[in-house]
Amino acid sequence: MKRKRVRVAEGVYRETGPRGTRYLAKWRSAEGKEHTRSFPHLKDAREFRADALAHRGKEAERAKDDGVTVNDIADTYLSQNPHWRETTRSTAITRLRPIRDSLGSRKVQAVKASDINQYLAQLHSAGRTPKTQEATRALLRAVFQVAVDDGLIERNPVASVKAIRDQRTPEERDARLTDDQIAALAEHMPADEWRRLLVFILGTGMRGGEAAGLTWDRVDFLHSRIRVDRQLISGNYGEPVFGPPKTKNSTRWVPMRPGIREVLEAQQQAHPVTVDGLVWVTDTGAPMGRSVRSEAWRIAARGLDLPPGARGTAHRWQPVA
Predict the structure, then answer these.
(1) Which of 58, 59, 178, 289 has CA 20 to 30 A from 172's CA?
(2) Three-state SS at 301
(3) pLDDT tens figures, 238-283
């Protein structure tokens, strides 16, 4: 006789099997761990589960007194995902940084859906793309789910926040920069190093992280080619950290098209010695990490007539096909 399980009450199940009928009480502890206990009678299972939930509630109250903050659950969220690729972890840490600045010191119980909506509205006002806004909303939901699973809060404040849809047309999403727009961007770049990087990315088609992680030992002037086998994960704080490319197929040789050799030689002349042999560094010799690349792009794009969405991202360093 196969076991048959039927839900008879919230968190309580009747299980019929070779040994007869039993009632299972299921609940989660304050640490988020799922527990199950079997009883011969329905009443016993329901009473035990109620006591377990009451105990969890007391633990949550103690957590409130201890002052668990958004920073605390963000740290827990990161620690629960040790299997992430370095690029994924770096992206999460980068997106969490402004969240920590805005909400990090607040107790998790004090954060409401209106606070999340207000934070996302700030991203919109700052010119962040719908894709970035939605990725941030999804990250916030995952972070606050940690507090729900641990019994710190009963309901995720991000659950009622609507997903952010990209309202642009396919033509707007696929728009590329014209020669005039590229020239205007180059003119408004904050330094010569950024102008050279813009020309380099346009001429090679390399991703921003791939270009920022390029070192001189991977530049083959003799055969006019560039080896791409890693990217810069972090370089804004301390020593540069490298990681694998976005995909396995991203490891490749890139030919030096006309003008690229000259751009590289100009950069080498300006910065003959750099940290870890990086090709692309700022005017102060610092690595061109993601946040400084984005800031340089925003400075250059400010006030220019660019395609919708291009003002807030450096992913569109590509010419019109």
Answers:
(1) 289
(2) helix
(3) 578 888 888 888 999 999 999 999 999 999 999 988 778 999 998 8
